[in-house]
Amino acid sequence: MTKLIDHTVPLIRAIVVHPDGRSDSPRSAEGRLEEAVGLARALDLDVRAEEIVRLRKTTPATLFGAGKVDELAALVRAAEAEAVVIDDALTPVQQRNLEKAFDAKVIDRTGLILEIFGRRARTREGRLQVELARLDYERSRLVRTWTHLERQRGGTGSTGGPGETQIELDRRLIADRIVKLKTELEEVRRTRGLHRKQRQKAPFPTIALVGYTNAGKSTLFNRLTGSEVMAKNLLFATLDTTQRTIRLPQGRPAIIADTVG
């Protein structure tokens, strides 16, 4: 019997680390770690290990102290992890140094959320917003790509090397793209504003379902409207607003909106 070919994409093995340096209670830190693990799984990462790291003070170069970096590196090797999710905002220098220490891809909380948003955004406005945020995030991290060229430069540093030239080029391309995206986004928002004014003229109310991510808004929306919008047990499953018309118990029509989250 011929075996079927498995076309599924293998999951990336990862560990999740929550730095706890804000004097939170243990329960609060555990809740934050649980949410970070949920975000990682929402990106289809195979979470092999998770850990809370207590921080008395932060280290500018690596966020964690040298001893803790070594411990985490050992955990990465033991878990055979290909990625490490740090549930905090990292500077470009911290991210680069941790990647060297772990010999693995390092993703901070901002990068993780942007990756999720990039996968889930469906409307033109949503995709434009995500790309704009991603470019702004990556602009400060361009130097990471060209560090190896800077080392080849030598001399006194008074003349730019090939790495610096490429960085300047990339920054200009990103800046030009950001300007174009902002123009396109403004046009989309203007159109949306016109549609909102038209809805405001309608003689019936608008109801918005609001709440924290993964609270069940989309599930409730589907039950009330008979729709089939995406409703999964995932953080940030909904990144675009959806609206439908329903009938209230008295027969009066109303617009109901499933909001982002």
What does this structure look like?
This protein is of the alpha/beta class. It folds into three domains: 12-110, GTPase HflX, N-terminal domain (Rossmann fold); 121-144 and 162-199; 203-258, no CATH class. The chain is 47% helix and 16% strand. The protein contains eight helices and seven strands. It has helices at residues 26-42, 66-79, 92-102, 109-120, 124-139, 147-150, 162-200, 217-225, and strands spanning 12-20, 45-54, 83-86, 105-108, 206-209, 242-247, 253-258. β6 and β7 form a beta hairpin. α1 (26-42) runs parallel beside α4, α4 (109-120) packs antiparallel against α5 (124-139) and α5 packs antiparallel against α7. The protein is globular, with a radius of gyration of 23 Å. The N and C termini lie far apart (46 Å). 20% of the residues are buried. Residues 1-8 and 144-159 have low confidence and may be disordered.
Strand arrangement in the largest pleated sheet:
2-1-3-4
Q: Total helix count?
A: 8
Query: What structural class results from the helix and strand content?
Result: alpha/beta
Number of strands: 7
> In angstroms, what is the radius of gyration?
23 Å
Strand content: 15-25%
The ordered string of helix (H) and strand (E) elements is EHEHEHEHHHHEHEE
CATH superfamily of the largest domain: GTPase HflX, N-terminal domain
CATH class of the largest domain: Alpha Beta
pLDDT < 50 runs, ≥5 residues: 1-8, 144-159
Here the CATH topology of the largest domain equals Rossmann fold
Write down the overall geometry. Answer: globular
Overall CATH architecture of the largest domain: 3-Layer(aba) Sandwich
| Multimeric organization | single chain
> What's the mean pLDDT score?
82
Please describe the biggest sheet, giving its number of strands, its sense, and whether it closes into a barrel. Answer: 4 strands, parallel
